[in-house]
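quick q for whoever's on today - can somebody do inverse folding on this one?? i tried earlier but teh output was garbage lol. tokens:
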């Protein structure tokens, strides 16, 4: 039953944390550490958002933005092995943070033709020590790359339109992970607490503003620290209750290229006013030796703050369904997740500019695992 347990809790749906708060995309799970023996997995997720807004006065009141969020794929892989009865290790490759916004042309919307992309990749190496009492500790290093680009063509409430571009090179930063867990296999109980540190970046950036000029400089920022509390426990034969709470320090995250701040009077290209806490609760059931199913719900509070036009999403509610098929050493998990994206208002230079209401996303994912 243990292999089924791990798959259910890490992947009630293979989409994981796709389209979560801020620009969170993977949830940075370390549950592969708890797999038995040597284990290798690959995962892929397709996310299709439907995200659109309507301008407010004085920004061409009532004009629609069109769908601004392109579909995207997220890939991951992980490997876990035992060193001896006490020590084990894992390598995890994921895409922890990301954003992709593209305002279509020809709409008459004040941000038409603007776009932005932020991508990241991370390789995490973890070492775990467990004792006979059920307690274990783990930790390791995370190497993370980031890159970004943006085109901002905004009509402003005062002054001429802003015609701005930025290109940021790839940069690598190093952080760490530390945690503790407690397990009682006889009742399928596991509780884990994982801290992921912030990772600092200093990205070479070329900015250009039409009518002002160009600037080559470094943009400094930190991807946020986070804390994951995850649990699972058996509640009946072949039935598992699981869930978690994830806190991410988004209030300390801001992309503030120098020239952009100058021409906008101190505005951030992308930032968040508050931290994000994501809650998940689910139940899994093993049907027979080959098949298991699971369902979960997720929630993030709507903060009702003013958001930037490159990140118009505030809170969410979600429901996930998954099916797991096991045969021999192989295990295949497939799932689907529906996300209702929270309503929000975006601003330009501190002035409310648009309402983004009644938006959603669908994520479909698959994970293939192999034990050897």
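ok took a stab at it. sequence:
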């Amino acid at each position: 039953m243990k292999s089924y347990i791990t798959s259910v809790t890490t992947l009630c749906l293979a989409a994981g944390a796709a389209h979560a708060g801020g620009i969170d995309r993977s949830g940075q799970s370390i549950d592969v550490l708890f797999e038995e023996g040597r284990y290798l997995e690959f995962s892929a997720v397709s996310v299709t958002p439907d995200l659109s807004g309507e301008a407010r006065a004085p920004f061409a009141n009532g004009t629609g933005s069109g769908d601004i969020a392109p579909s995207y794929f997220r890939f991951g892989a992980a490997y876990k092995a035992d060193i001896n009865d006490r020590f084990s290790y894992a390598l995890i490759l994921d895409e922890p943070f990301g954003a992709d916004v593209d305002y279509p042309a020809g709409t008459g919307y004040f941000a038409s033709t603007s776009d932005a992309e932020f991508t990241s990749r991370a390789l995490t190496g973890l070492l775990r020590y467990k004792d006979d009492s059920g307690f274990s500790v783990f930790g390791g290093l995370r190497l993370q790359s980031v890159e970004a680009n943006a085109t901002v063509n905004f009509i402003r409430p005062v002054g001429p339109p802003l015609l701005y571009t930025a290109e940021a090179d790839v940069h690598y930063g190093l952080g760490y992970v530390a945690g503790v867990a407690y397990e009682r296999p006889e009742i399928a109980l596991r509780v884990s607490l994982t801290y992921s540190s912030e990772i600092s970046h200093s990205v070479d950036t070329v900015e250009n503003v039409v009518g002002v000029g160009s600037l080559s400089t470094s943009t400094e920022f930190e991807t946020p620290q986070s804390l994951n509390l995850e649990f699972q426990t058996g509640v009946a034969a072949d039935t598992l209750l699981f869930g978690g709470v994830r806190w991410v320090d988004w209030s300390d995250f801001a992309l503030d290229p120098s020239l952009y701040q100058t021409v906008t009077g101190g505005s951030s290209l992308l930032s968040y006013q508050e931290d994000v806490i994501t809650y998940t609760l689910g139940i899994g059931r093993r049907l027979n030796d080959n098949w298991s199913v699971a369902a979960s719900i997720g929630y993030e509070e709507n903060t009702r703050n003013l958001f930037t036009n490159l990140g118009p999403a505030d809170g969410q509610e979600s429901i996930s369904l998954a099916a797991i098929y096991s045969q021999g050493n192989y295990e295949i998990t497939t799932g689907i997740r529906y996300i209702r994206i929270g309503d929000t208002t975006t601003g330009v230079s501190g002035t409310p500019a648009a309402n983004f209401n009644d938006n959603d996303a669908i994520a479909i994912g698959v994970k293939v695992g192999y034990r050897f």
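fwiw Residues 2-371 form a domain with the Porin fold (CATH 2.40.160.60). also The chain has one domain: 2-371. so keep that in mind when u check it
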